[in-house]
Structures
1.
Amino acid sequence: QVQLVESGGGLVQAGGSLRLSCAASGRTFRFSAMGWFRQAPGKERAFVAGVSYEGRDTYYADSVKGRFTISRDNAKNTVYLQMNSLKPEDTAVYYCASARIGQSAEPTSYYDYWGQGTQVTVSS
């Protein structure tokens, strides 16, 4: 079992920044790739960013490249999503997810544990 708890969401004006955190417990964190996904109202959940288990490889959705940065601290069992230059279209519930051990951090990998989500609202 893996428990994931997101924090850091909130309301921000367009152009602002937020940093999301995801604290993990359970399965050995340092062996799992981690990802961030988001779901806007009326839309399907979509991949945002992923980071490999050792933090060397990262993947991003085209819509966030150059604005968002995913990172992890294996000593703290935490993964982060730094979001800069936020746009109203970034408004969504953001979810942290853990990939099955052995999977990469790519969007097509199998993510089998999910957090409860944190709301990010960007006002225009």
2.
Amino acid sequence: QVQLVESGGGLVQTGGSLRLSCAASGSTFSYLSAGWFRQAPGKEREFVAAINRSGSTTNYADSVKGRFTISRDNAKNTVWLQMNSLKPEDTSVYYCAARGLGLLTTPDEWHFWGQGTQVTVSS
């Protein structure tokens, strides 16, 4: 079993930056893919970014390409999401997730979830 705890959310102005962290428990985290999803009020949860277990391969939603960067350090059991050039439409609760192999974009395909952290971008 893997437990995920997100941190780093907050309020930021348009054009600003935030760095989200996801701390994982359990020795198996390094064998799992990790990802970030987000969900705004009244909307479905959507894929943001994912990274394979070694960190050599990443996948991004078109809406965040060039602005967000996902990275991980397996020695620290941590995944980060660096978010730059933030826009009001990035306002959401951001969730960390983990699964076996694959960088799938469908939330139902991910097995482990954190509790989420709120990101609010003011205009």
3.
Amino acid sequence: QLQLVESGGRLVHSGGSLRLSCAASGFSLADYAITWFRQAPGNEREGVSCISGSDGRTNYADSVKGRFTISRDNAKNTVFLRMNSLIVEDTAVYYCAAAQSCDYPEGGMDYWGKGTLVTVSS
């Protein structure tokens, strides 16, 4: 079965850190660009960060640049999102998704995880 499973979300105080994981089964993450999305209550889903499968290039939304770091461990078939200096506005369900390229829009993802909840308290 081809699937992505996110983990690592929990309640954390403002200023704290978390590391989210996105583990794949049934396919190799190394063959895909992996994007982290998030959706806060009442908001549309937005792209947070992407890491290319071919060369490891990364990009970040302006709102998380300098605070979040995306990385991948192909041996573990897992992509990580390190989140530092968390703020209340980072509260959301975080999803990972796989596509052929970081240039693909949200509608072009091949696989989606079910999400993990991150709650940042003030």
